[in-house]
């Protein structure tokens, strides 16, 4: 089928997509990715009549397939076509470009209808990174070398393993790593790269986070070397230590917080912290606005809280401190003085 015919078939289906997208149903990541792959393939000028027939057969296999296809069309239609970042990826080598474009579209499909608005307010890197988490989500992966990686909420990383180095580019958020011996015949260093510098692992369990103009590192086991981007020397951190650094310098090592890295198990552990700081941290794990009234922000809090249910954590505060939690809407919550 030529390009004009392919375009016509997509446009015709898009008309019915606007109806089905009005009340989107839950969509699995696997089926969304399959639909996205078909969509990207058929947008290619090289798509054939056989490609369109195969796609039609896939859509007919199950209602979920047709739903996913209509969702892909609806997302594209509402965004006035495939975003420019998707277009640029299609100019890369064909196999890699299609994979990245399909992955980007699939993410938007799964989180629709909010997804197609997100690329206007979120960095595009979220959709094209090799691993990413949404707000309130944390996930773990086993990497090609056997190392275990866990991403905190709203985190984006890019993995690049080559013959010389195992690199994890931390674009935003936080990552927890349990390193494994490199299976490569010539061992390669494992490094985490942030906008501020690099952290080289030395057989270790550690976490790295980046926010604003600084990054933080905490070591639970083994050691790491921390080197700011514009510094000639590195600081070695041992187990039980933490530090912060910017592009120019790294702070002296300090004892690691007692709850360092526990977010990787879905726990927010704090020891004698200000309530205002606790609420700000908890807010990273939920959508919407969560604020703390200045009148109670100075109260101190100690405990370990399950991040899987942030509403339960907020209700628990009422039993621990003289506060009340007011929900103006599900996405606008305030912690106020009790009374």
From TrEMBL:
All copies of domain FecR protein, residue ranges: 131-225
GO molecular function: sigma factor antagonist activity
Entry's transmembrane regions: none
Lineage: superkingdom: Bacteria
Keywords: Signal
Domain FecR N-terminal: 34-74
Pfam families, A to Z: DUF4880 (PF16220), FecR (PF04773)
Signal sequence annotation: 1-21
Entry protein name: Iron dicitrate transport regulator FecR
